Amino acid sequence: MDLFPLSELVEFLEANEVPRPITLRTNTLKTRRRDLAQALINRGVNLDPLGKWSKTGLVVYDSSVPIGATPEYLAGHYMLQGASSMLPVMALAPQEHERILDMCCAPGGKTSYIAQLMKNTGVILANDANAERLKSVVGNLHRLGVTNTIISHYDGRQFPKVVGGFDRVLLDAPCSGTGIISKDPAVKTNKDEKDILRCAHLQKELLLSAIDSVNAASKTGGYLVYCTCSIMVEENEWVVDYALKKRNVRLVPTGLDFGQEGFTRFRERRFHPTLRSTRRFYPHTHNMDGFFIAKFKKFSNSIPQSQTENSATSTPASLDLPDPKGQVTPKLENSNQPAKKAKVAVKTKQQLQKRQHPKKASFKKQNGISKGADSELSTVPSATKAQAFSTLQDSSQPAAKATVMREPKVTGKLKQQSPKPQSSKKVAFQKQNAPPKGMDTETSPVLSLSKTQATQKPENCVQPLGSSQGSEKVKQQLPEQPSTKAVFQKQNGRRKRLKTPTTSALGSSRPPPAKRRKSQSRGSS
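Structure for Nucleolar protein 1, as requested:
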């Protein structure tokens, strides 16, 4: 409805219900049109010349004999071919001794027409992706006496890789068939917008491959003809405009003196102004199948550099092979994984260091200092720190040698140690009973024994701290210590509720009750 005015639309729809007249193309390799017309008239065929634009065509009105089984047909004097199918070959205008590619050749009508215009000279490469349809091509070429043609079975999208450097290329692209509804009425019902867009995508790929197969440096050629038996803009002007942007080609006049000009604007789309040189043919105006013809001239074999990346999406690799860009992006994503693994390794290493050095945590348990109170620790003199930590450093040895001694020389070592975030009391208790990761099972019991002794020293062994002068300073600066039972409950019961985020971060399953901890600590001691 957007293609035609309302009155013309009705004529187009009515013309689709009427069959097109039967037309013949004379095979000038074997006979002349005048001799063929006389022979068919003698057999009871009513015919006339096709038109002024064709020198070989005949239109058949009626016949008393089957037009496809006459002796002249079997001898290869003519070919049954629609009038619109002769136009692309006329626009291609092949010359003798050229190399020509017919990318979608079945059933061979246009190929044989090219051969007769070249007078069986040069080379024609007739290709089709459907092996079954190639059988009709072989039969027709043998019957018509074509000897300069090679038949190949390739996907047209692979063709620049197979062979290239042709003087001229004819691309009769597969399409939705909206111009031949009179031949195939099923098109009215079995084609929808998705099918048309799918055909348009395939046509863009084939057209780029066909352009790449043309040799722009050819002395006589460098031309390409693109045609479809469709009237849809999505399959015609849209595809041609796409090729103009992607390759170094330009549109030239087709050489046909009739037919309507192509669209330069349709709905919201705007096309290149040279699309006026393309030609459209309609059933209701030209009494032939709906057809579209565009002729390109390739002026450079190079592909525009700024558009090579975008052309990868329209090349045949986009359907069957992964996109070259798609192979790069996963590597970039996977390249972040080593960095993440390194961060995780650093965190686990820090956790292991915390587990291997529980002295600071046990010291905080003795004096009732919570996590994050590093500023309070900094107020305590270094001498008191050394005196308090001297008892804990020696406790890391086996239980037989765990004696309490006061060594003031340790202050230098303690100052060199960098302050690290302290773990909670609950985590310290779990570290006492669970061996840390990466440590042997032989050393873990010794560490657990020493840790439990270090935690029990505030309850049972208060005499070394009380006898030293540093302990008096600690008592003055820190609040009074409650009884041993209250200290134990404070360490294992009440502080536990405040430090649940740290335990969840280390992935502990569940916190054991206070009584259970007390029994475990006594049993381990």
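DSSP finds 26 helices and 15 strands in the chain.
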